[in-house]
Give the backbone structure.
Amino acid sequence: MPQHPPFPHLFAPLDLGFTTLPNRILMGSMHTGLEEDKGDLRRLADYFAARARGGVGLMVTGGIAPNRQGWLAPFGAKLTTAAEARKHIPVTTAVHEAGGKICLQILHAGRYGMHPMLVAPSPIRARISPFRPWEMSPRLIRATIRDFARSAALAREAGYDGIEIMGSEGYLINQFTVPRTNKRTDTWGGSFENRIRFPLEIMRAVREKTGPDFIVIFRISMLDLVEEGSTWDEVVAFAKAIEAAGATIINTGIGWHEARIPTIATVVPRGAYTWVTERLKKEVSVPLITTNRINTPEKAEEILASGQADMVSMARPLLADPDFPSKAQAGQADTINTCIACNQACLDHVFEHKTASCLVNPRATSNPATPPTAAGNVAVVGAGPAGLSCAVELATRGLSVHLFEASGAIGGQFNMAKRIPGKEEYAETIRYFETMLKKTGVTLHLNTSASAAFLLEKGFQEVVLATGVAPRIPALEGIEHPKVLSYTDVLYDLKPLGKKVAIIGAGGIGFDVAMYLTTDDHVLPDDAARIVAYQQEWGIDPTYQHRGGLTTPHPEKPTRQIWMLQRSKGKVGATLGKTTGWAHRLTLKNRGVQMWNTVQYHRIDDAGLHLTVNGAPKVLDVDHVVVCAGQEPLRALQGPLEAAGIRVHLIGGAKLAAELDAKRAIEEGMVVAQTIRPG
Ligand code: NAP
Ligand code: SF4
C-alpha cells in the first residue's frame, strides 16, 4: 500500500510567481537579542542557518528599525547604511547555503520606543511606556516613508529574499491606522483613508525600490484588542488596499502590546486566532499567514487543510526545536521538542535585555560543541525535568544511562503543572522526553527508590542526583490540623477541597493552585471549547461588532472563595514571569480571589486560619489551608554516596530548591551531562 506523506497541506509548496517556498511554515519574527551583537552577526547567522537546515519554508528576522527614532531601545538594530547592510551578508549567505529563505523585518516602534527620541502620529503616551512621543511633522512622515524604502533596498542588497513590514502589535504603522492613537487633522489623520495613507505609501515606496521579484510581507493588525482600534470593515478595506499596493503575502497581527488580553501565553488555547485570518481569506487573493499559539504539526495541518490560511507562522516552536519541519515531514512528530508557550526564556529574557533562549531547549540560541563521545555507566536518580534532560544528553553521548524514578511516571513537577487549567502544554515536554529516553536508549526504572546501598551494589561510580524537592512546611501552630494540605496533596494526589480556601504563599505555585481551585472545568474537551471559554473570559468578540474586536468579558464564575496570602510587603504575584504574570494576576482578580500581603500567620484550628493583616487580627473561616510556601531540597543520598567514594552531581531542585525553576533544571541537566567523564 502506498504510504501517504505526513501533513500534506503543511508540506505543499507555495508558488509566489517569481519564487516558490518549499512548504507552508513561516518562522515568524521574534527578537532574540542576537540582532544587536557587536562586531558581526555570526551568532545570528548560525541561529537562522540551523532553522534553514531544519527545513522551514521561510524565516523573518527580529525587528530592525528603519531609522533612529524607530528604535525599540537605544542602540537597537537598524538598517540605514550600506555598511550596516554588509553586516547582514553572513546571515543571508549562511541561510542560502543551508537551503533556506529569509526576510528582514522592518519595525518602527513609534510610541513604544523605550528612548526619549520616540515619535508617533499624535503625542499620546502609551500606558506601557514611560515616554511621551513627539508628534511627527508631515516632513518627518515623508522622510520615514523613504527610510522604510531605503531599508528594504538595503535588505535586498544584503541578500535577503524579502522583507516584512511590521504594521501590527501597536507599533508606529498601527498607531497611524486607528483613531486611538491618530488624532491628526491633516492628510495623515482623521478619515480612514487618511489614517491608512502612511502604510500604503510605505508599501508603494518599498515595492518601487525593490522591484517585483522581492517578497514583501505586510503584517496587518487584524484584531487590535484595544479600545478605538480598527473595525472589521476597516481591516478588510486596508488589506485590499495593501494587496493592490503590491504586497506578496499578508501576515496576521493580533493584539497591541498594551492590550490587557494575553495573546500568546500558554493560557491562550492552540489556534485561538485562526478565525480572524479565515475571515479575511474571503476578501483578498494574496496568500495569508495565520499565527499565535500554533505549536504542533497536527494543529498546523488542521488549519491549512480547513482552508483557514495559506501559511502558518511559528516563531517560538522553531526556537524550541529548529528541526520541527524536518521531523514532521519525516513522520517523526513525536520527537519534536514542543514549545509550551511559557515565555520564560524567550520573551522574558528579551524584556530583561538578555539574549533569548528556550526553557525546553537550552541550545536555542547558542550551539555548544557536541562533547566527545564517552563510555561507562551513569545512574541518574529522579526523572523530573533536570534528570530527564541529563539522562538524554548522557545517552546521546554514548554513555549507558540508568534513570531511577521513585514514582510510577516521569515528569516530576511537570505532572502537577500540566493539571493547571491553561498549562496543559506541559504534558508535551513529558511526551518529548518519553520519546527521547527510548530513542537514546536510556534504561528507565520506574517505581524504584534508589537507595545509596542499591546504587553501590550496582557498581555506579558516577551518580547524578536529580531527586528534586519536598514542599516546605512552615513551623506554625496547628499545621498538623486536618484542614491543612500541601500543594502536592492538591495537584498530585488530587485531594478534594471545600468551598473556602486560604493559600499560604503567593509564588508561582500559589498562583497555580489558585488557578486550579477557581474552576472545576479542569479539562475542556477540545481546542474549540477552550477557545470559546478563553474568548468569554477575556472579552474577545469573534463576531467583531465593535472597534478592536472587544466585548464585555465574562470571567469564569469562581467555584470557591480563595484568599492568597504572603508575609512580605510587595505586590502579590511580583515574582511571576514578566510577560505572563500580569495575566495570571488579572485572571484571579477577575475571579474574585482576595490577595493579601503583609500578613502574619498565628495558628490554624477548627475556626480557621488566625492571622494579622496590616496589624489587624482576623480569622479566615476556611475549609482548607493549602501550603505553597516554597520547597526544601531532597538530597539525602549525597552524603552516603560521597562517603563511599562515588562522584555525585547535584542538579535541579536537589541542588537549589530556593530557585526551583524548570529553565535552570533542564539547562543544568544538559550542562552537567556534558562534563561527566566516567573512569
Ligand atoms: P516561591 O516563588 O519561592 O514562593 C514561595 C511563597 O511562599 C512566597 O510567596 C513566600 O512569601 C512564601 N513563603 C516562603 N517561606 C514561607 C514560610 N516559612 N512560611 C510562610 N510562607 C512562606 O516558590 P513557589 O511558589 O513554590 O515556586 C517555586 C518556583 O516554581 C518559582 O521560583 C518559579 O520559578 C516556579 N514556578 C513559576 C510559576 C509561574 O511563574 N507561573 C508557576 C509555578 C512554578 P512570603 O515569604 O512573603 O510569605
Ligand atoms: Fe516556547 Fe517557553 Fe521555549 Fe519560549 S521559552 S520558546 S515559550 S518553550
Notes: The radius of gyration is 27 Å. The first strand starts at residue 14 and ends at 15.
